[in-house]
Backbone:
């Protein structure tokens, strides 16, 4: 017998399916450059990818971005761009450059859809930059007295150039940036503050590995020549992947009245002669700081990398002699460096990993700035281990058949860690009105 209820059941089922389709999540809209992609690139890429900066091409407009769409997707998917090499969770470092999963997905879907421009009316405001400066317009710019000529070829010894600050009073610095005059031939610049005696203030730690007191003093003085024995207190750096330092409100770095800046400049010939005139820009603190930011470093200049050795570990370690808060760590090796690990061992014996860089990249060196400064009680040890590949498997290795030692040039090696910190104090800093802008 025919089921007299079948038509009614079919109608009901159809109604249910239609209702289900009606309330299902709609397919995500196709991303467009104007509405979805430009905000991501403006926030994460434009700082480097703009005229006159380190990025090889500008990425500020649709016409500039469109030819590179597939390349951008590939670099993002592989994690090569934006460059970031520490493995700690997102949120540990305030300068974490990694894109979110949502941002990566948006870029991938945009390229898959043919990289549409969308409605130009959806474009966000264009990012604003002060030409040449990440920190904005500096309050003071300190520049080399004369340019240094970089030849088209050959090895250039590190240059040491002094710049008088002519500050008549102590200055508290909220932001500091090094601006190379000819970025294409400047590998890195270290900026030291030198008082009248040229000696840096003693750091709040003792180096344990290696014992630096056992090492013979090295270096020679001289403008434009060899390294002075006491370069001063490191206050600023520029290198591929790192540059400006901007301190949190209430934190500031002090440059003393009458101080001189000493610049260590590493030039690399690239086939075209150039003249470099590097500058240092600073922004003064608007209010008296409550914490003085200090910088220092520890290293292992006794490193030895055997020829054809694929994995050599080199250690260094310091013990803190005061309570401090660590605000940033800067690992540095050359072409044979492949990874870094930093461990903090507390006085009670427990330890924790604070920075892990399993795939170090000499071309993208980074100050890892803690979102929450790391409290380090007196007596704690900070240990650093760098791993090196001096074998033929390292495609960047200049010569795997030689034993490698410490040296300034890129075909030599370093095991160097820069640190930024403040010493804990029971009371605020005694700051005079002359110390601020």
Residues:
């Amino acid at each position: 017998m025919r089921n007299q209820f079948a038509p009614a059941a079919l109608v009901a089922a159809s109604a249910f399916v239609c209702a289900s389709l009606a309330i299902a999540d709609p397919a995500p809209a196709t991303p467009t450059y104007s509405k979805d992609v430009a905000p991501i690139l403006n926030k994460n890429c434009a700082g480097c990818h703009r005229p006159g900066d380190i990025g090889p091409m500008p990425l500020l407009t649709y016409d500039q971005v469109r030819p590179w769409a597939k390349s951008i997707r590939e670099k993002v998917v592989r994690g090569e761009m934006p460059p970031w090499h520490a493995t700690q969770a997102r949120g540990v470092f305030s300068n974490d450059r990694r894109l979110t999963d949502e941002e990566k997905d948006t870029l991938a879907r945009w390229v898959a859809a043919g990289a549409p421009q969308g409605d130009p009316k959806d474009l966000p405001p264009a990012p604003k930059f002060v030409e040449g400066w990440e920190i904005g317009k500096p309050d003071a710019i300190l520049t080399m007295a004369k340019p240094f000529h970089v030849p088209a070829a050959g090895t250039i010894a590190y240059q040491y150039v002094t710049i008088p600050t002519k500050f008549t009073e102590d200055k508290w610095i909220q932001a500091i940036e090094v601006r190379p005059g000819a970025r294409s031939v400047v590998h890195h610049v270290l900026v030291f503050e030198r008082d009248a005696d040229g000696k840096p203030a003693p750091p709040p730690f003792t180096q344990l590995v290696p014992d630096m007191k056992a090492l013979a003093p090295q270096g020679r003085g001289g403008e434009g020549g060899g390294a002075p024995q006491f370069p001063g207190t490191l206050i600023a750096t520029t290198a591929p992947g790192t540059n400006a330092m901007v301190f949190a409100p209430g934190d500031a770095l002090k440059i003393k009245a009458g101080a001189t800046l000493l610049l260590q400049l590493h030039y690399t010939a690239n086939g075209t002669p150039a003249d470099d005139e590097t500058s240092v820009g600073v922004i003064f603190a608007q209010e008296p700081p409550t914490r003085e930011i200090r910088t220092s470093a520890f290293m292992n200049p006794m490193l030895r990398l055997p020829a054809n050795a694929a994995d050599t570990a080199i250690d260094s370690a310091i013990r803190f002699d005061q309570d401090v808060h660590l605000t940033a760590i800067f690992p540095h090796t050359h072409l044979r460096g492949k990874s870094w690990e930093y461990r903090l061992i507390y006085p009670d014996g427990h330890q924790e990993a604070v920075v892990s860089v399993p795939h170090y990249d000499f071309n993208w060196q980074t100050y890892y700035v803690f979102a929450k400064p790391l409290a380090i009680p007196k007596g704690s040890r900070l240990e650093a281990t760098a791993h090196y590949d001096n074998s033929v498997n390292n495609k960047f290795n200049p010569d795997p058949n030689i034993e490698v030692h410490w040296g300034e040039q890129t075909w030599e090696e370093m095991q160097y860690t820069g640190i930024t910190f403040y010493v804990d104090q029971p009371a605020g800093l005694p700051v005079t009105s002359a110390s601020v802008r």
The two ends are 97 Å apart (CA to CA). The mean pLDDT is 87.
